[in-house]
Every structure is written in structure tokens, then in C-alpha cells.
Amino acid sequence: MMVAQACPRCRGTLTRVEDVGDVYYSCVQCGHVAYGRLPAVTSITPSENWQVAEAADRGAVRRRQLRRDRERAARQKAA
């Protein structure tokens, strides 16, 4: 069984693992292991949502790339 966004550490996907005489949940992304019952996960606020943060990071990276390209073009033009 797989449970999406249920890891208490990274909000990754938990899988149920049945070992010899033991049942536990393991995160596919970070490797966190939870024994016993499925761990409770609090609701994710928009500021904690990794998709929102990732989109902001992508925008910042793109702005830096564009600024470097403009600076490089200006240096080549001046030379």
C-alpha cells in the first residue's frame, strides 16, 4: 500500500512494508521509517507546500540566468 504525501519528515510517499513478524511504513523519498500505525500528518499550509516553494525557486533561478546572459552579452559587446 502506498500513501502519497504522508511522510511526517518530508511529505513524501510512504509504502507499507511487511517484514518477518513486523509491519512498518517507509518513505520512498527520504527513507524515514515509522513502525506501528500509519503516522498522522498535519495539514500543509501554502507556505510549507513544496510545490509553491519550488515554483518560487525556479523563478529566482531563471531571473539569475537571464541577468547573467545580459551581463555576458554586454561584456561581449563592449569588447
In angstroms, what is the radius of gyration?
Answer: 21 Å
Quote the distance from N terminus to C terminus: 62 Å
* Helical segment count: 1
Class by alpha and beta content: alpha+beta
Average residue pLDDT: 76
Number of individual domains? 2
Residue share in helices? Answer: 25-40%
Please give the number of β-strands: 4
Largest sheet: 4 strands, antiparallel
Strand order of the largest sheet: 1-2-3-4
Q: Classify the beta-strand content into a percent band.
A: 15-25%
Shape: rod-shaped
Low-confidence segments: 44-49
**SSE run:** EEEEH
Per-chain topology:
Layout: E1 2-3, E2 14-19, E3 22-27, E4 33-35, H1 50-78
3D structure, described in words:
The chain has 1 helix and 4 strands. The chain has 79 residues and is α+β, with helices and mostly antiparallel strands. It has 2 domains: 42 residues, no CATH class; 36 residues. A 4-stranded antiparallel sheet has the order 1-2-3-4, with no helix packed on it. The longest helix has 29 residues. The radius of gyration is 21 Å and the shape is rod-shaped. The protein starts with a strand and ends with a helix. About 8% of the residues have low confidence.
Task: Provide a concise account of the structure shown.
The chain is built from 1 helix and 4 strands. With 79 residues, the chain is of the alpha+beta class.
Attribute tags:
alpha+beta, 2 domains, four-stranded antiparallel β-sheet, 1 helix, 4 strands
